[in-house]
Amino acid sequence: MFILMKRSFRYVAEGNECSSLNFPYVLALKPLLPLEYFNGGGNNFIEDLLRIPKGTDVYDLYCISTPSDITKIEKVGRLRTGSEGVRDGGGLFFKHQRREEDFETKEEWKEVLKRRQGDVVGASYFDRIFDDNNNI
Questions:
Q1: Which top-rank group of organisms is this from (predicted)?
Q2: DSSP assigned state of 103
Q3: If you count Cβ atoms within 10 Å of the first and of the last residue's Cβ in the chain, which end, N or C, has fewer?
Q4: CA geometry: angle 14, 16, 17, nearest 5 deg
């Protein structure tokens, strides 16, 4: 999973807007729960999620700070459940955002990316990295 940086890092945990915006080029989430945990075969995914106990490590978070060196991947955190799952009737939604929005803040990235268009950092890139080295 990849997240648009500028909008995601705009606010601190308390909900206040950051005074100085600093965000990585790419953020990737590496799942920690084994696939077997989700035994519903996709049919009972919500029920599977509700079974995740409080305090369970769900994802490791990795980032690439700049497009200048996409081989430098850093583990920056871990996502852990803070409570039991709760069914609330809402949903989880994702909205596509253009990278150009990030470039408004990090203009130096534009030039790097023009020179390095062949360096694509997407899901398949991280799949290879995570498969080759589980201990990044």
A1: Eukaryota
A2: H
A3: N
A4: 140
Q: Report d(CA 131, CA 134) in Å as an integer.
A: 6
Neighbours of 27 (CB within 10 A): 19
Calpha distance 18→11 (Å, rounded): 5
Nearest to 81 by CA among 100, 102, 55: 55
Residue 56, domain extent: 5-132
Residues in the chain: 136
- pLDDT at residue 129, as a whole number: 80
Q: What is the C-alpha end-to-end distance of the chain, expressed in Å?
A: 17
| Ordered per-residue pLDDT tens for the chain, 136 residues | 445 455 566 666 677 777 777 788 888 888 898 877 777 655 677 888 888 999 999 999 998 888 888 888 999 999 999 999 888 887 777 677 777 777 788 888 888 877 765 566 777 887 888 876 655 6
